[in-house]
């Protein structure tokens, strides 16, 4: 399949695979489009949202519902948001920005619960443990490090750092079946 999209910056399939959400541009403004890809004969935009120019680009997308309605706007980040992850039990939402700062929100009330300020201003990746739903693994790329944060108590329960600065962490993801943490690394 081929799509004609202006300035695509992010995309994510719906959990069912029937829809594709694309962060792009529309008439120069940031836009979020919902494409129906369930029928292989005809792909079409079924819904869309154009944002005011000051919001920049749509850099990450996380699926929770199949509609593109703005529920609430919360402005706690001053830099572009580069990663968003909902906890498996939908208790928390974590959002990270371009300098590695993370805000964890209490999702039911849409209020900030915890701020994790990056000291090194490096990009971060993170994922929620699929079984507990309250443990957030946070990784900085160089030097490669991983912190396991127990969000309700706001305490670090485990920490690992690679001493060799030649290794960097690209991404992390928990296995939903085994609960194991998969870490993707590269040599600089």
TrEMBL record:
It comes from the Eukaryota. InterPro entries: WD40/YVTN_repeat-like_dom_sf, WD40_repeat_dom_sf, WD40_rpt. Pfam families: WD40 (PF00400). This is WD repeat-containing protein 55 homolog.
